[in-house]
Design goal:
One of its GO terms (molecular function) is ATP binding. The chain is 32% helix and 24% strand. By secondary structure, it is α/β, with parallel strands linked by helices. The protein has two domains: 237 residues, Rossmann fold (3-Layer(aba) Sandwich); 187 residues, Rossmann fold (3-Layer(aba) Sandwich), CATH 3.40.50.300. Helix 3 runs parallel beside helix 5 and helix 13 packs across helix 14. The two termini are 36 Å apart.
Length: 447
């Protein structure tokens, strides 16, 4: 079946966008934060707020989806249109096991769940994890679960919104290849330009809601896209891709965090064992490794958010976190000025915003009025407000387009100039090496 978007205009997103996803085709949507990628996908799904004005046509096999009732759309979702959500934690009910979450994809259409465990193991996650709730899963593991749910009924087309943002490079490539193999047609929105160019037939560039470029990359990688790119924004995205390590002279300071024989995990499952590690003032340290290896758990332990199963963690001062989902970590009702000074009411929010590159952004703005990159910088400013000895950042550039990710990387690196230590978890090792001075690699945990 063909998915055809014709002159699609959304009141706060795409404007006059037209393209098709032919039967058997993989089409990638790329563009800067706020360009309208997620809004376009939600328009196809029919999940935008009722007050949103949607004009044009969204046709699946010739049937216009705009104007259908919620009952009619529910019958289509899952069976004819699959969906992989951007936030894997938000898509899973925290009170139920992930196994329940997966089987619901079949039950909601009156069918018995089939092949859940083999499908999960095919993506590198053992069956035993089905009995755990989402909080025990890594973001990357949950994204793989979402891929299984989205392809449960072999739908005509799957819409995937950043389906690999929480996966390491190898797992991301495997997961997207699996998604391509298990779907008839795929429309994928992603900030990972290099990844989608390897798997997509065409790459579409959205810029400020308008479709400005449609390139037939034919799975030829970034090299082919660079050869065919015409629009300045396309070339800017390609030029912003990380190319190598950024070096600096650095004298080690006093120890601010010490881990002694630390073992971390959930329940009886040990992810990291016997870890001895020191972090010093001014250090910029990276942590990488496959999904499920314990990266986020280690970060949370350094910040004091989880306790080790064994061993001791010593800190000389305050540890401030920058969470993986910056949007969810900000109070949507608070203006950003109030959010930034939450850890320290005596801090100057204007000075902190200027420090992280938010000069000109009003203090009374709400998170919804900012782009993804701006919200990430607000989270960095809030961490700085607490005058921490160490900042821990979990995938701080994962959901950002290459140009914004490069800017946030520079902002994070500048954090250490004042002597604050920085620990960053990232799946994007090329980008990580632009932020940190050294990288610690974790072995795969028991998946």
């Amino acid at each position: 079946m063909t998915l055809a978007i014709r002159d699609l205009t959304v009141s706060y997103g795409p404007r006059g966008v037209s393209f098709t996803v032919a039967d058997g085709e993989v089409v990638a949507l790329v563009g800067e934060s706020g360009s309208g990628k997620s809004t376009l996908i939600r328009a196809v799904l029919g999940t935008l707020p009722r007050s949103t004005a949607v004009e044009g046509a969204i046709e699946l096999a010739g049937r216009n989806l705009i104007g259908l009732s919620e009952k009619e759309l529910r019958a289509i979702r899952g069976r004819e249109i699959g969906y992989v959500a951007q936030d894997p934690f938000g898509s899973a009910d925290p009170l139920w096991t992930v196994g329940h979450h997966l089987r619901e994809a079949w039950r909601v259409h009156g069918e018995r769940p089939t092949d859940v465990a083999p499908r999960l193991e095919g993506l590198g996650v053992a069956e035993k994890w089905l009995g755990h709730r989402p909080n025990a899963w890594s973001g990357g593991m949950l994204q793989r679960a979402d891929i299984i749910a989205a392809t449960a009924h072999t739908p005509s087309v799957v819409l995937a919104d950043e389906p690999t943002s929480a996966l390491d490079a190898s797992s991301a490539d495997t997961a997207l290849a699996t998604l391509v193999a298990q779907t008839r047609s795929l429309l994928v929105a992603s900030h990972d330009l290099a990844l989608v160019c390897r798997h997509a037939d065409r790459v579409l560039l959205l810029h400020k809601g308008e479709l400005v470029e449609d390139i037939a990359v034919e799975r030829g990688g970034v090299t082919r896209m660079k050869q065919l790119a015409q629009h300045p924004r396309t070339r800017a995205l390609i030029d912003a891709l990380p190319t190598g390590r950024t070096s600096r002279a650095h004298e080690p300071g006093d120890v601010v965090v010490r881990l002694e024989n630390v073992t971390l995990g959930y329940g009886e499952t040990e992810l990291i064992t016997g870890l001895d590690w020191e972090i010093r003032a001014g250090d910029a340290v990276g942590i990488c490794g496959p999904s499920g290896s314990g990266k986020t758990t280690l970060l949370h332990a350094i910040a004091g958010l989880v306790q080790p199963m064994r061993g001791e963690i010593w800190r000389s001062g305050r540890a401030m976190p920058i969470f993986q989902d910056a949007t969810a970590s900000l109070n949507p009702r608070w203006p950003v000025g109030r959010t930034i000074v939450e850890p320290n009411r005596n801090a100057d929010p204007r000075e902190l915003m200027d420090r992280v590159g938010l000069t000109g952004v009003e203090l009374d703005r709400k998170p919804a009025q900012l782009s993804g990159g701006q919200r990430q910088r607000v989270a960095i400013a809030r961490a700085l407000a607490g005058s921490p000895a160490v900042i821990v950042a979990d995938e701080p550039t994962a959901s950002l387009d290459p140009t914004v990710a490069a800017s946030v990387a520079r902002t994070l690196r500048a954090v250490t100039d004042s002597g604050c230590a920085l620990v960053v978890v990232s799946h994007d090792e090329a980008r990580l090496t632009q932020i940190v001075d050294r990288v610690h690699r974790l072995d795969p945990g028991p998946a």
